[in-house]
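Summary of Year 1 activities. Much of the first year was spent building the evaluation harness for sequence design. The harness presents a backbone, in tokenized form, and records the residue chosen at every position. We chose the following record to illustrate the format because it has been used consistently in internal testing since the harness was completed.
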């Protein structure tokens, strides 16, 4: 079968990783419990930044956020390798900016995920993911972001939401933990 995965905050804990980087850069010590209660995908609110300042901060730290030691969600790598070894096809579909695609693919590979070059899609807008998911005829797709998931309600692909504080209103099958996940 054909399994598609978003990367950031679906397979890896990118926002929390960025949250720690923000704390360091801003010389603050905001507790992780504040992070866990955020109802937005963006994290700037926790630091009292407005949308504009938050966007600037995020973009200025993008390379550091993406390509340092962002933790994987427990069990994610193991599950994907298991699916791969069972003969399933694993696709990655990430809206990271185009200029980071190659480096992202390399990073994901080095972290131990099974990556095939032809099955790595990157650099699209959130709303363009649906076209790719449709074209690829995926059996399953996993994402965390409400703006993406909201566009996927009328496709044959079985869509799951990776459980996060900002997507609690989404009413589709939910993955809380990758360890032990079965479809
Ligand atoms: Mg994501």
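For this record, the design step produced the sequence shown next.
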């Amino acid at each position: 079968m054909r399994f598609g995965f978003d990367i950031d905050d679906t397979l890896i804990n990118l926002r929390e990783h960025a949250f720690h980087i923000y704390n360091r850069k801003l010389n603050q010590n905001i507790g992780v419990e504040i992070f866990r209660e955020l109802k937005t995908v963006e994290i700037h609110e926790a630091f009292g930044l407005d949308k504009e300042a938050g966007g600037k901060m995020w973009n200025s730290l993008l390379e550091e956020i993406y390509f340092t030691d962002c933790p994987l969600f427990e069990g994610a790598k193991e599950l994907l390798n298991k699916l791969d070894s069972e003969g399933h096809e694993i696709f990655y579909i990430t809206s990271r900016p185009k200029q980071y695609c190659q480096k992202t693919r390399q990073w994901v590979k080095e972290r131990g995920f099974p990556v095939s070059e032809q099955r790595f899609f990157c650099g699209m807008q959130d709303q363009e993911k649906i076209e790719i998911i449709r074209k690829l005829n995926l059996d399953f797709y996993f994402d965390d972001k409400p703006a993406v998931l909201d566009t996927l309600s009328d496709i044959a692909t079985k869509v799951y939401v990776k459980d996060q504080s900002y997507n609690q209103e989404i009413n589709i099958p939910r993955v809380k933990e990758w360890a032990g996940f079965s479809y």
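The chain is about 35% helix and 15% strand. Quantitative recovery figures across the full test set are reported in Table 2.
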